[in-house]
Amino acid sequence: MTILVTGATGLVGERLVPRLVEAGLACRLLLRTGKTCPPGATAVTGDILDRSTLSEAVRSVSAILHLAAVFRSPDSDLIWRSNLEGTRNLIAAVQADAPRARFIMASTAHVYDRASTAPARETDPVEPQHAYPASKVAAEGLLRESGLTWSVLRFPFVYGDGDGHLEMLPKHLVASGFHPANRMSTLHHRDVAAAMWLALAGAFDGRIVNLSDEAPTTVYELVKLVGQRMEASAEAMRDPWYLHVDASLARSLGFRPTVRTVHQAAQEGIL
Predict the structure, then answer these.
(1) 44, 29 Cβ separation under 8 angstroms
(2) Which of 35, 54, 155, 187 has the lowest CB atom count within 10 Å?
(3) How far is it, in rounded angstroms, from Cα 162 to Cα 214?
(4) In this structure, is residue 176 part of a structural domain?
(5) CA–CA separation, 267 and 271 (whole Å)
(6) With b meaning 16 or more CB within 10 Å and e meaning fewer, what string describes 169-199?
(7) Do the domain assignments include residue 191?
(8) Domain that holds residue 99
(9) How far apart, in whole angstroms, are the C-alpha atoms of residue 83 and residue 86?
């Protein structure tokens, strides 16, 4: 099986690709000029914003793992162009040159309503408040209507393998109005790979699927785990279910996280 990976040098891709290569998959990576291809994979130069570079990238592949996205950027136009128009270009290339390929797209738990009254399920309304999740919802719609074999994986807060993501968390919490007692769903990179294996095998075909480990963790605990401090608060907590997802569908389709909690990751030294 040959798969094309976009976003292979990003937070998720950089840690996923070596696991795929180690498992024996032939990985073709769409890389912009100047990017280094990791050992064991094959690079094809291109850019999802340039449709003319994508035909060679997708030709003869069995699956596409579409991880490329712009997340934290003050440039909302760049976010929309990358996440929506880039996906549109990639879908068009697959339709033309690899119509039987399985198209797996990474999305986000940020799409759900901040004021949810329970852990968010895939059937809940989406109410994205910022450019990143809004562009992801729009891209999901393109894929669902593409006629391709597709799945959408909505990731929670992804961490582990020394990626620095947990260390970056404290500076975003205050600006985003989080209460110390807010709980977030999380997922270790090891289980991102486990979910991708299921997706590549077709377990999630035609579905949007929430992913998470087994225990949403308070942001107070997450900050403490990386040696930092968050002030306690006696104020009433607002939006207690924001970024807390229901992953029961994924469980019913065979997904079982091997890193069950962030505390397990800390004990194993794999934060």
Answers:
(1) yes
(2) 35
(3) 21
(4) no
(5) 9
(6) bbeebeeeebbbebbbbbbbbbbbbbbbebb
(7) yes
(8) 2-160+187-212+246-257
(9) 6
Q: How far apart are CA 166 and CA 114, in angstroms?
A: 21
Tell whether the model's pLDDT for residue 84 goes beyond 70: yes
Q: Is 259 helix (H, G, I), strand (E, B) or coil?
A: coil
Nearest to 127, CA basis, from 242, 212, 248: 242
Mean pLDDT across the chain: 95
Rounded to an integer, what distance in angstroms lies between the CA atom of residue 210 and that of residue 218? 19
Q: Which two tokens stand for residue 178?
A: 């989080």
* Sheet with 63-66: strands ordered across: 42-45, 26-31, 2-6, 63-66, 102-108, 149-155, 208-210
Question: Does this model's pTM top 0.90?
Answer: yes
For the chain, the domain total comes to 1
Domain assignment present for residue 7? The answer is yes
Residue listed under structure tokens 């807060």:
157
- Give pLDDT, residue 1: 87
Q: Which two tokens stand for residue 14?
A: 């950089």
Cβ neighbours of 100 (radius 10 Å)? 9
Report percent pLDDT > 70 for the chain.
99
Q: With a cut of 80, say whether residue 174 has pLDDT above it.
A: no
CATH code, domain with 147: 3.40.50.720
Asked if residue 151 is part of any domain, the answer here is yes
Could you give phi then psi for residue 120, rounded to 5 degrees?
A: -70, 135
3-state secondary structure 148-180: CEEEEEEECEEECCCCCHHHHHHHHHCCCCCCC
